[in-house]
Amino acid sequence: MARLGIDIDCLKDVLRMEAPVRERVAEVFGKFEEARHTGLHLEKVNNARDDRLRTIRVDLSWRGVVLAPETGDSYTLLKVLGHDDAYRWAQRHRVSVNAANGRIEVRDLDAIEAALPEVTNEAQQTTDRLFDHVSDGDLERLGIDEQTRAFARELTRVEQLERARAFLPATQWDALYGLAAGMTPEEVWADIGGDVESTSYDTQDVDAAVARTPERVLLVDGPAELMHVFRQSFALWRIYLHPLQYQAAHSSFRGPARITGGPGTGKTVAALHRAKHLALQDDGQVLLTTFTSALASALRRDMMLLLETPEVAHRVAVHNVDQVAHRVFTERHGRPAILDKADEFAIWKRLAKRRSASFGEQFLYDEWRQVVLAQQITSAGAYLSAKRAGRGRKLAPQQRVQLWEIIWDFQQELQLADRWTHEMVCVEATRILNELPEKPYRHVIVDEAQDFSPMQWRFIRAAVAESPDDIFIAGDTHQRIYNYRPSLREVGINIGGRSTRLTLNYRTTAEILAWSLSMLHDVAIDDMNESLEKIAGCRSYVHGDPPTLRQFPTPYDEREALVGQIRTWLRAGVEPGEIAVAARSDILVRDAKELLQRQGVPVGSLVKQGTGNVVHVGTMHGMKGLEFRCVVVIGVGENQLPARSAVTPVEEDELAHAHDIQRERCVLFVACTRAREQLYVSWHGQPSPFISV
Ligand SMILES: Nc1ncnc2c1ncn2[C@@H]1O[C@H](COP(=O)(O)OP(=O)(O)OP(=O)(O)O)[C@@H](O)[C@H]1O
């Protein structure tokens, strides 16, 4: 039976059309279903540059351009246009097979030929070309064919390449843009999903290429399914994946695997698709987990959009990691009585005083978590020889002994009182799971992995048996905003070479991204796997306004301007719910909320996202994992960022100081990269050293 797929760009176009046209397009799919009986009415195109392109009637005024197979009966709808335009489009385009990854691609031959003289002319004015640094061999290996290569060799400026996006074959353009953005040929090769094993694709076999391109060609079972796709207010991420996202979501891995990449590169989307893929395998329960309950709610909502049937939805549990640990704990021991931070501080203070020690509560609080629990220390001997790199003040041996006594007292007191912290619950839940012969989950997928503590990683390891496809990790260490820096290997998770890095940002404009990335220049950040993470090549194809940077003489002026900015956006038609305001401190957040409320702007908390159409106001930490059309970041002055109280003095511990500064930088980076279209950053006095003004 003839089958029609729809190219993703065509789908995007159709989604923007009026409902009746969409319905007619869906009917075209019905015609293919019936074609068995009646034959297909595909028109040949005179003077076509690619004789596999045909047109099909959609209605009186609209026609579709269809790629007809040379053999077999899998057709692809490439374009829907007005009658004359459809024929013209079909005449000027050609479909080919990318030599590097074997996927189909389409180019506008007329446009390439028309643009070539202009770029050649410009190239004659200079000796420097955009791709001088890349050899022909590398271009060829990256799938850049002769025609595109000839064009690329004449380019002198990135802007020319950006314009060429409309007519060059997409994968080849992606590769060129990656090279122009400073990626090495190897990085580009990985980025376009180059297949090392299959070096020789048959570039004449378009039918095989279509079958090999599931992330670009959506196959639907008839008009009803297509109408279903059209009708939902869905986001494109649900059906279109970049080849690397697709690979990460659908591959089989021999053990733990992960996906990394800068902000907005689609790691969460890949994690969601992987959860769906594994759920469809139906070989056991899938856990999709993340750091906070707010993020878990957002994941749950998106997961439900992807999992169509309740039966499959049932196979995926979405919870934040502490919630899962609490559940395991509660099943064995009943509900734990949780010690809150204020009570915990009071205990540390009392115990330190009892031992006449000078350690502060915050120091003890962190030391216990970051050294004792993180390294699973249970004895004085182990503590005395433990690594304390990056833990602030250096300790003499007698001080360590004293510290261990306080920590010991603390643990005893909690045990006697049957009081628990979330970390203790996690450790106990891990112990319980380690004893069980059967693990609760068959697959675990972790999102926002960069902030998980070693205790949480051990819990994850204990929740799933070591087996193929056991753990999948999505995260970006450039967005780490808490204090742990675990190595996956040390917590028993070996990802080997099973790592994919995404570089194409789908969220933010190139201008906002470039400005935000400038905060991280020359900052070396670990990759949780004992090497350094890279952010080079992270790029966006969408252009917009540069960030607005505003300096004010006083806090008062800064606050006034904040209200003015929000009003300007609201007047321009931005919905309140599309705006977020972030600040480093709780006090600034409270101030901003009260101020906006007083001015009659509807406001709500970031944590309670989705509760009405309100401007969300919250801390920079609270912005993690979220995105908004317009983002304001206030209080980015030199006295506010880095937040002094959060940074270890350099004279106390150089390494801890450097880590704290890096974390503060990342906090700001996270907040700024949540903006889709507009970013407004303000401060009073001098700007933070993190930003370039
Ligand atoms: N293949 C895709 N096609 C279109 N849009 C996509 C695609 N992948 C992701 N997106 C969109 O890009 C945005 C960012 O995606 P996502 O949240 O998965 O990125 P991320 O890498 O997890 O971001 P961050 O690390 O900053 O939280 C979302 O709006 C998502 O819908």
Helix-strand layout with pairing:
Layout: E1 3-7, H1 8-15, H2 19-38, E2 43-44, E3 53-57, E4 62-67, E5 74-82, H3 83-92, E6 93-97, E7 104-108, H4 109-123, H5 136-141, H6 146-153, H7 158-164, H8 170-180, H9 185-191, H10 206-211, E8 217-219, H11 222-231, H12 243-250, E9 257-261, H13 267-281, E10 286-290, H14 293-306, H15 310-313, E11 316-320, H16 321-333, E12 337-338, H17 341-354, H18 361-373, H19 380-384, H20 397-417, E13 419-420, H21 422-435, E14 443-446, H22 454-463, E15 471-474, E16 499-502, E17 504-505, H23 510-517, E18 525-526, E19 532-533, E20 539-540, E21 548-552, H24 555-571, E22 579-583, H25 586-598, E23 603-605, E24 615-619, E25 628-633, H26 654-672, E26 675-684
Parallel strand pairs: 1-5, 9-15, 9-16, 10-11, 10-14, 12-13, 14-15, 17-20, 21-26, 22-24, 22-25, 23-24, 25-26
Antiparallel strand pairs: 1-8, 2-3, 3-4, 4-5, 6-7, 18-19
Bound molecules: adenosine-5'-triphosphate.
Protein name: DNA 3'-5' helicase
InterPro entries: DNA_helicase_UvrD-like_C, DNA_helicase_UvrD/REP, P-loop_NTPase, UvrD-like_ATP-bd
Enzyme class: isomerase
Describe the structure.
The chain is of the alpha/beta class and 693 residues long. It folds into five domains: 3-96 and 209-231, RelE-like (YaeB-like fold, 2-Layer Sandwich); 99-200, no CATH class; 236-330 and 426-533, 3-Layer(aba) Sandwich (Rossmann fold); 340-420; 547-684, Rossmann fold. Helix content is 43%, strand content 16%. It has 26 helices and 26 strands. The strands form seven sheets. It has a six-stranded mixed beta sheet. Helix 17 (341-354) packs across helix 18 (361-373), helix 17 (341-354) crosses helix 20 and helix 21 (422-435) runs parallel beside helix 22 (454-463). The N and C termini lie far apart (61 Å). The mean pLDDT is 90. The structure holds adenosine-5'-triphosphate. Adenosine-5'-triphosphate is lined by residues 235-237, 240-242, 245, 261, 263-269, 476, 479, 506-507, 625, 627, 673.
